[in-house]
Write a structure and sequence with these properties.
With 91 residues, the protein is an all-alpha fold. Helices cover 78% and strands 0% of the residues. The chain has 4 helices and no strands. α2 packs antiparallel against α3 and α3 packs across α4.
């Protein structure tokens, strides 16, 4: 298994990213969009600066969390600002 992970290249990450984005187009849930973008980011970064498979997987996990969290924050702010004030709960 280690040999398989050690052989990861930027093409694997770019392929995974595009595959996740293609699946997202079919499903439209929203979660695969951000993991697909994270995989593309890892692939592009690996193209510029090669590093080990442990770093690749760690960066993918962190980027997935960061992009998903950033989208959630942005969407949460949009939902609160566009809601009818009469319907909002006073906190």
């Amino acid at each position: 298994m280690t040999e398989l992970l050690a052989g990861l290249t930027h093409w694997h990450w770019l392929g995974l990213g595009f595959a996740l984005l293609a699946i997202e187009v079919l499903g439209s849930v929203g979660f695969l969009l951000w993991t697909g973008i994270a995989a593309l980011e890892v692939g592009l970064l690996l193209l510029i600066w090669p590093f080990g498979w442990q770093g690749q997987l760690l960066l993918f996990a962190l980027q997935s969390l960061i992009t998903t969290w950033a989208w959630w924050r942005w969407q949460h702010k949009q939902d609160r600002s566009s809601a009818d004030p009469a319907l909002q709960i006073n906190e």
